[in-house]
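ok posting inputs for the pantoate job
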Amino acid sequence: MKLIHTPAEWNPLWLNHLQLNQRIGLVPTMGALHQGHVDLVENSRSKTDITVVSIFVNPTQFNNPEDFKKYPVTLDSDLEKLEKAGVDYVFLPSVDTMYPNLPSLKMDFGDLERVLEGKFRPGHFNGVGIVVSKLFHLIRPHVAFFGQKDLQQVGIIKRLVSDLSFPLQLTVVPTRREADGLAMSSRNLRLNSSERSQALILFKSLEKAKAELLSGKKWLEIVREIENDFAGVPSARLEYLQLIHPESFEHYVDFSPKEKSSICVAAYIGDIRLIDNLPIIP
Ligand code: PAF
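and the output
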């Protein structure tokens, strides 16, 4: 596994792989890697010839500066995991490499980002859109891999690829969960042991909401019940629980088995903001 820090190091390698007719997969990450990231790597290794993982904690996508400062950095163990997973290259750019100038460009994904994460984290998807575009331009992958846990991010990146005609395919990989159901996330590293057990309320709420929807209960009644459940968990604060269309992200006021749907949840556990989602009708 080779570490690269600049496009100047990558460009001749890229050309060489292209001349050998090899397909390149990119797994963009912000580090603090877990098994969910390893799943992305395994997908890339099965679908492409060369796997590049980028690790870059992108400052422009954090609407909350404290969250950026406290974002876990675990480079040594990340590199160990990637080596073991059979990654070919790790791209570790500096902030200056990625942002020689702070971009004056602003990306606005319209209705796709007026809801859910976009609504609660203003500017977040502008930062994601710009950094992902830069990674696509710098690495020039044939396929890029993203996790289903960030459902709205996936929708935004699909739109980005289509609007800017990036010549690449996207592959979306299912959410990897801990044995008790908690969705794996780099932010879980910041939970203390009491918060870790309280964090399970996100997944439990999704499962409960899904079961109740499918048994015919009204969505608004389910939301009220889950708000009550959250009120009983001392460190938890529900930010949103919504039944949405998984591509347009428009919310439904009630469930129809004829329409595609997913449930999305975001909540604080102590100071740590977590998200999760569950497909109902894929
Ligand atoms: O999902 C993430 O880890 C980040 O949003 C991404 C796609 C690597 C962009 O910084």
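notes: The two ends are 37 Å apart (CA to CA). Residues 2-173 form a domain with the Rossmann fold fold (CATH 3.40.50.620).
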